[in-house]
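Dear colleague,

Thank you for sharing your sequence with our group. We've completed the structure prediction you requested, and as agreed, I am returning the results in plain text so they can be pasted directly into your records. Please verify that the sequence below matches your submission; if there's any discrepancy, let me know and we will rerun it promptly.
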Amino acid sequence: MTTDMSQFFQVFFEETAEHLNEMERLLLGLDVASPSQEDLNAIFRAAHSIKGNSGTFGFTDMTEVTHILESLLDRVRKNEISLRSAMIDVFLEAVDVLRGQLDGHQHGSEVDREAASSVSAKLNKLTDEEQPGKLFSRKFHIHFSPSSQTLAGLRMENLLADLKRLGNLEVSEKGGNRWSFTLETDTGKDSIEEIFSFFAQAGEAEIFEEELGYGFFESPAEKKDPGYGFFEPLPEVKQDDPGYGFFVEIPEKPAEAPKEPVPPAEGVNWGRRATDRVQGGEAASIRVGVDKVDQLINLVGELVITQAMLAQTARGLDEALSDRLANGLSQLERNTRDLQESVMSIRMMPISFVFSRFPRLIRDLAAKLGKEVELVTVGEGTELDKGLIEKITDPLTHLVRNSLDHGIETPEKRISQGKPAQGRITLEAAHQGGNIVISVSDDGMGLPRDKILAKAKEKGFEVSENLSDQEIWQLVFAPGFSTADVVTDVSGRGVGMDVVKKNITAMNGKVEIDSFAGKGSRVTIRLPLTLAILDGMSLAVGGQTFILPLAFITESLQPRPSEIKTVAGKGRLVHVRGEYIPLIALHQIFGVEPKVHEIHQGIVILIEAEGRKVALLVDELLGQHQVVIKALETNYRKVDCISAATIMGDGTVALILDVGALVKITQN
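Please find the predicted structure tokens below.
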């Protein structure tokens, strides 16, 4: 029966991406002067697995690149050649090429063949280093007669390059289907056979060893099993007791188990995949599709809504009849809440998935800008929703690039200011209450207040010298705003910080800036832990119920008539502690007949978003709720000033307010 390999493609794509990420992480952390043998073995194993798995699925372009890369890594880890910085650069370039090939195969897009050829040539050039004066202990004569089928897919230059890595190679006959080689080497026949097994069919290569030892005895070098970093050598058995060939001495106590788990053998893992180990050796995790998790979360959300509806119905029954029902519903509520929290935790991922991409970004960009930068990460294990992981990546990338380009000075300038030549960028994540707080800070020059203010005036912004620092810093989020004197491919176009603010606000988050002249700056992002559940305040406007995200509420009050002002061209304002704040009546926005017609009889809620404060007029506050978010556009259509919807305990639909859109109303 033929196996349908297509069902395993996604497993291959995911695991190969993980191998490439691990290779990049280890390469960036290698000490060129004294590389860790464990890390070199791990990098080699990753390349070895990619080569084997890509060959299984017929992705020969990836196999060719990883084969050359693997061979070079093997020589490095065996100390046959010394590691150099130039090698790390080429290795990282090979990782990028493999990523491009993987993406092309996964999405059916065009693969850059020139990039693959270029990096293969660079890898081959690195492996062509000779060791002058080297005397080899073994000599082999090889006759290679490839079939027409082999010749069609054979790249002879790759075969020759692999043989040259073993020692001195001389080609005595070449062309067509007849080749003859002489190879002087320290390795055994099995290493040569392994190379030919990759390129040729069985029986096409004949390998003979020339006897050395002055013609009397064959004196082969000690054959060492390379192990490829997977296995430790077996201990030698002491032969004090001859045993007559039948018995081997048994140790008094069993050997200790290896501290590190033995990596899986080459090949694709078709089923369960252990990403961690627990006591007893059982798998601690299982790969599950995100769509299945989303479906489970949606069903639990429906269960929460149903439980709330039952609880509200039970409260309307006779107390004497509903005691047992109320007790049961109370237990159901606790169990439902625990179930909801457990299911939501399935989507939680450590923010290290985002942080891990920045060492490479900073390394490449710092080299391009001629700067020395150290990256420090804190709280990599802090977890947040996978949906947020995907959406926070671009904003953080903008912030890191800005810190490196605008914040960190050149080594010469830093030294002249009494700073160390190497700058520092710190990425930090932590939980605070029901939010996650992510900050990007640097020890550079800080934001130039005067330059920002001058640029704002030049662009026609209404600003004055009396603005606070926080108000000045918020100007950098304006669309098209940039203080760069020269436009480069790194920055200067005024695109970036406004996108950061827009994306963070869309996730019901906030972004703040702190800066200290000559000491550096810090950008802080506050986000909810998940996009599936929202902590909100329910508001009544006429006969409608709206949900306002708690994260944007600063306070609520009932103003006196004297505190309400009307200004021509500005509309109505409410005076709060010396500050006039624009007032928005929600019943006018949504065309609802209010229960309260006088402002001083209603409730005013102060919200803050995008650096501005706005007052919302509502009839009354109904209470605080944790609501399950439902996409309005998916189930109905887009509505102005509404971001989503939810279902309340009585079965009615409540609309969730879009705070960003409401704030923009006051700017028009």
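Summary note from our side: Residues 290-347 form one domain.

Kind regards,
the structure core
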